[in-house]
Amino acid sequence: MIPIRLDRVSKTYAASPEAEPAISADLTIRAGEFFTLLGPSGCGKSTLLRMVAGFVAPTSGSIWFGDRDVTGLAPHKRGVGMVFQNYALFPHMSVAENVAYGLKIRRTARDSRDERVAAALSMVGLTGLGDRSIDQLSGGQQQRVALARAVVIQPDLLLLDEPLSNLDAKLREETRTQIREVQENSGTTAVYVTHDQAEAMAISDRIAVLADGRAHQVDEPRRIYRQPATSFVARFIGRSNVLPVSIVSVSGETAEVTLAGGGPAITVPRSPSMHVSIGAQAELSVRPQAVRLVAESEAHLQGVVTRVEYLGATLTATVEVGDTTVVVSVPDRQIVPERGQRVGLAIDEGSTWLIPE
User: Fold this and answer.
1) CATH 3.40.50.300 residue window(s) in the chain
2) DSSP 127
3) Residue 286 and residue 216: Cα distance in Å, rounded?
4) Which pTM does this prediction carry?
5) Which of 165, 190, 184, 185 is CA-nearest to residue 175?
6) Has domain 240-356 been given CATH number 1.10.150.130?
């Protein structure tokens, strides 16, 4: 169980010295932590993971495993277990042979090898399937074989690159839970790459939200959801209304703002470190469940319903408020608004978060 430190690491692919890096990061991953790199395609998350693994050399910066500088160290000398998106299993080998491959390379004694393979297969729920060929397994089972192969070598660090993207929705939920259980039981530090926000929120201790080649926010899932650091994070994590506001006054951990659509001023929470000044423009992150349909006389905003989507326990109503669109989450037990209906919107002020524009 070791901490990982990425000290001003960057990777630039273009030859020009003026080229922007594909990814630049300064991160510390705690020992035993399940840490996720989350972001859209092309944001640099897989490049970052492959630099940690040793498959890609950083253009600048250094990578530390505990007190070891591993920046120039070959991948097989880093003590890393890797789970790939495409599993990378050997089709001519049995399940047990696939899992044992890393131990054979390390010349582990046969008795110890067999014992560790059996333990790894048990850990991922594949006891009794060691003699099967890979093509006899489902996609979910193959992914678990890949996970067992990664953990059987007892790595200092477990790296997982989009490991669930080839599975259907139900199987992804089951497998992600198992991955987290295996990581917790082994105590290994893990770095996980995904573009799926729900997946990251469900299993991570902390998340780095990446975009445009940099980390917009590094924090616990709950704080990222409730207190997004940037407009990108607010929009990318879950569903959020990001509304333009003007600052009326500032006091400690709150600010009084007016919404662009008019209505009375509201008092909202903010980060004390956020620099704001009276009269300045900012943005307010408002989750759909923090908005209620009310009588127009009680409303912070007023608008017209343009769309209603039924989702079972809840429904979402899209409301046009001037030039702004506001999405509202409505419990199914409430009266369903109709398209074209004019409605009032009240915002739960304490469930919002002020972010820089």
Assistant:
1) 4-226
2) T
3) 19
4) 0.90
5) 165
6) no
The architecture of the domain spanning 4-226 is 3-Layer(aba) Sandwich (3.40)
Residue 16 is predicted with a pLDDT of 62
> Max CA-CA distance within the chain?
78
- Residues in CB range of 42: below 8 A, 6 or more apart: none
Amino acid of residue 142: Q
- Which among 52, 61, 49 is positioned nearest to 12, based on CA atoms? 61
Q: Are 284 and 354 in contact (CB under 8 A)?
A: yes
**Residue 289 backbone phi and psi in degrees, to 5:** -75, -10
Query: Mean pLDDT in the chain?
Result: 90
Q: Is 142 helix (H, G, I), strand (E, B) or coil?
A: helix
pLDDT at 58 over 80: yes
Which residue's entry shows tokens 């991953």?
29
81-140 pLDDT tens trace: 998 888 788 899 999 999 998 888 888 898 898 999 999 999 888 998 989 999 898 888
- What does the block give as tokens for 15? 């030859």
